Amino acid sequence: MLAISPPLHYGDHYFTIYLFFPITAAQNTPMSLRYLFIDFDSFFASVEQQFRPELRGQPVGIVPSIGVDTTCCIAASYEAKAHGVKTGTPVREARYLCPGIRFIQANNRRYVQTHQRIKTCIHSILYIDAVLSIDEMYGRLPPQWQAPQTAHEKALEIKRALAHEIGPYITGSIGLAPNRFLAKMASKLRKPNGLVAVDFHDLPEALYAFKLRDITGIGAGIHKRLRTARILDMEDLCNAPRRKLHNVWGSVEGDRMWYALRGIEIPATETQRSTVGHSHVLPPRLRSEHGAHATLHRMLQKACRRLRTMQHFTGALDLQVKFGFEPSGRWGLGLHCFPTQDNIQLAEMLNALWQQRPNDAPDPIKVAITLSKLIHKNSHTPSLFAAPSDARREKLQATMDQLNHNYGDRILYYAPAMEAQRSHDASPMRIAFNHIPELSAEREPRN
Question: Which of 137, 235, 309, 354 has a 20 to 30 A CA-CA distance from 396?
Answer without folding.
Answer: 354
